[in-house]
Backbone:
């Protein structure tokens, strides 16, 4: 289904896409968001706006998206199932569309125990796969979740989802990805990739099922600032694989931040040669200023233009 999303037009045209990520602040000022949007707008095709990531109270992803749009950058609004029932989800997404948002990323959401309101109630009225399906139905069949018709303008989002190629059981990862595609996901962003060998095996299984022909896959990469950050991901984050050689390389580096950027650039160049991958999603966590260099040195600048 064609939408007004520039990201969709670029991917459908066969271009290798680049997306980034901006995390809204824990306060009511949009200055930082706008600063990062101006910094990124010539180097990425769209940017995710996270939705209270790690269950920490932050500026609304939809409000943040309006500021991003005003800066000339296309936002991808994340919508989690953790905090809203189906009434609130539909209301928020109608509002987001009316404000110019055209890309949607459907997520379950981090458990509230990880955030700054651990006693908050979670909702999970629908899960991420149900949300994908219901949003596709709102768009393609002009129907609310309840089955009631949408009498006027339906929200025509380019619908995305996430995939983790590394969580166990490994064989189930591709099956879960396929469920999201069958539900209506049109683009996929993966969790950050450090183990290239395992990611290549994942993509082999994706190609065997022909999934890469039905959805646009953007591989997630993250520049690491230190060996301690790498070690934390390796030992403390479920579903994350960081090879020992990356930890050691950062540990031995005279300038670990510079080494982290070099590793990220090498990873992107590797990913570009993997069949079935249609783009990269750069998650420079609280380090957005390095994204332009990474994009440029990876051979992905200037970005293509689409009408």
Residues:
């Amino acid at each position: 289904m064609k939408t007004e999303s520039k990201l969709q037009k670029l991917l459908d045209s066969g271009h290798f896409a680049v997306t980034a990520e901006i995390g809204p602040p824990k306060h009511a000022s949009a200055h930082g968001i706008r600063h990062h949007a101006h910094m990124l707008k010539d180097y990425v095709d769209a940017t995710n706006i996270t939705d209270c990531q790690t269950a920490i109270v932050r500026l609304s992803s939809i409000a943040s998206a309006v500021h991003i749009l005003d800066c000339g950058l296309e936002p991808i609004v994340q919508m989690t199932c953790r905090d809203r029932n189906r009434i609130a989800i539909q209301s928020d997404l109608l509002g987001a569309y009316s404000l110019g948002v055209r890309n949607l990323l459907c997520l379950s959401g981090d458990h509230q125990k990880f955030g700054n309101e651990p006693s908050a109630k979670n909702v999970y009225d629908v899960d991420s796969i149900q949300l994908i399906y219901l949003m596709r139905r709102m768009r393609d069949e002009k129907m609310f979740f309840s089955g009631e018709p949408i009498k006027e303008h339906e929200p025509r989002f380019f619908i995305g989802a996430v995939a983790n190629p590394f969580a166990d059981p490994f064989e189930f990862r591709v099956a879960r990805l396929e469920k999201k595609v069958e539900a209506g996901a049109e683009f996929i962003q993966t969790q950050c990739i450090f183990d290239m060998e395992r990611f290549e095996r994942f993509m082999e299984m994706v190609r065997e099922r022909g999934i890469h022909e039905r959805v646009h896959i953007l591989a997630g990469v993250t520049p690491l600032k230190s060996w301690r950050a790498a070690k934390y991901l390796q030992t403390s984050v479920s579903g994350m694989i960081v090879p020992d050689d990356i930890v050691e390389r950062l540990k031995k580096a005279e300038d670990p931040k510079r080494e982290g950027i070099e590793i990220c650039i090498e990873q992107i160049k590797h990913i570009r040669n993997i069949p079935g991958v249609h783009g990269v999603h750069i998650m420079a966590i609280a380090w957005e200023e390095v994204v332009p260099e990474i994009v440029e040195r990876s051979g992905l600048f200037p970005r293509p233009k689409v009408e």
